[in-house]
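Limitations
The structure tokens in this dataset are predictions for the assembled complex, not deposited experimental models. Users should treat interface geometry with appropriate caution, especially where small molecules or nucleic acid strands are included. An illustrative entry is reproduced here so readers can see what is and is not provided.
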Amino acid sequence: MAPGFDEAFLAILNTKSLLAIVSGSIIGLVFGAIPGLGGIIAMSMLLPFTFTWNPITAIFLFCGIMGASAFGGSISAILLNTPGTPVNAATCFDGYPMAKRGEAARALGVSATACLLGALFGLVLLGFLIQVMRPVVLAFGHAEVFWLVVFGLVSTATISQGSMVDGLIAGGVGILLSLIGLNEPTGLIRFTMGSEYLWDGIPLIPFFVGLFAIGELINYSARGGTILDENITPEMRGTWVGFVDVIRHPVCLLRSSAIGTVIGIIPGVGGETANLIAYSVAVQTSKEPESFGRGNLEGVIASEASNDAKDGGALLTTLSFGIPGSLAMALLLSIFIIHGISPGPQLIVDQPVFVWTLLIGYVLANAFASIFGLLSARYLALITQIPVHYLTPVIVVISLVGTYVLRENIWDIVMVVVLGIFGFTLRRAGLPILPLVIGFVLGQLAEKSFLLTLEIHDGRYMGLLQSNISWLLLAASVMIPVIKAWRIRFHRRAR
Amino acid sequence: MKSLSSFLIVNLVYGGIVFSIVLRSFWFDGKGGLVPLVIGIPTLVLIVLVLLSRCRNAGRESTAVASKDGDVAPWERAKPVVGWLCALMGVLFFIGFYPSLFLFTFAYMRFSANTSYTVALGMSASLLLVIYASFEWMLQRPLFEGVFFGAVLPLL
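Predicted assembly:
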């Protein structure tokens, strides 16, 4: 048995520890499900209360929050088309259509199971790689991150509903919107039209809440009835079917978890990227790509498995090098330091009990959140049968308040409403939202990586292609639209 | 409004955004305008091509687009919802979150959803209580008080 494992396991069998995990998970679920809040706010709010706690108990509490908030976010994404946190954005694309056709319980079951198995995958990989992962981290420089983002953007633009041209336009607009505000590599403030509000760019939460929650809310409020499509009898006992569905799609699960873990390892790329890239890869590799966006359960598996697996990858760099891969990890790092634990290559050797405690706590938190999800899915699914005129004020109020508290800027509310109306117009026009969102999330990262690569290589563009990983990602980015065009041509000829 | 109109509106909005960003990108020295131009110019060309193509085939395309969106409500029915949201936004700016959220919930439930006064009042009061308890008491995150309550009343 690995050194420190038994001591860490004994630390769990303690009322305080179990209470910390369970309360952390409940807080994570609630904060994750409310649009705009999320696990990071919960962790930062509770941080001051834990200063005097035993470090192990504090870590259990934060593991609980971190492990459960992702699944919490998927509940509102599936039931209300409102991603609780930005990392659940891709879950909306197929989870919500499933809920509309009466399979909300099944979608929640899929999400709960994929979350748990994705997290386990990430943590198992973490256990194996923690000693030998230095080359993996060092292999991803700015150029490789740039090509990874290009790959995500190209693949999404080509897989979206409607024509490829509409997808490319939406992706391009998404990228350009993400460039508004301060550009870190050059120090320029761009395209703000003189507005100080836009110095930090268009904020992510109002962008998501507006396009998804308010855009869809306008739609179903105008239609009336319930979220569930008319003439459909809901399948309320589908939770366990969802569990089995995930087991029956091992390739999608493992592939998405691997993508999530690798993206989690790359510092600064973020969870939004992991779930969107895993989703687009799932579409690319599917035999029925046209069924995505209409309630294909592989879409939910890909999004949620990658979402939870990325934490294992991010923990790897946080623990081994003290490099936080995301905002949540940066917060976790500060919690370690406050409690006198210094992450770094020696951590696993010097403090194995702490490392195992963290991993076991994280697994337990995910297990608790998933079991809660599986047990409560059929009751949560009842939300889709409530008349929308009861839901509308609740969703409006929670969305607006949740958006406001994040930055306490009243203009975020204006942004939400304007983007909500635009989101509804997009739905009316039958144009894709997915590439717009992906372009927006990944655009800034793509530009930053591109400019930093040029800077490092004295402005030479070949600096972008100096590693095998870059060439591989470039080849994949070129091949995807070519294969798509070939498929379309082939189908036309066949007809 | 038909779907084709929505299609044109979206592409015109896209075109306006891209055009203004591309135009502004020429003013930046060094690499500040490089990526916006590389992305913006092809996107603008695609938007122009799509708009021209759709306008040329307006008759055929309108049916093709309209057939896609069977589950999307028509604009005529969405206008009142948009009106409610804009009204809430305006009221919220002047009197802040708590009074406006209460008024919005009550008015929406009573006049748009046609529920009874009791249901409308009960729902708006309980929602207000939940929000107040969560954000003021538990999270200690005060919400916007509005231009009127935040700035004018304290002076009186």
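Some entries come with short summary sentences. For this one: Residues 143 and 275 of chain A are 21 Å apart (CA to CA).
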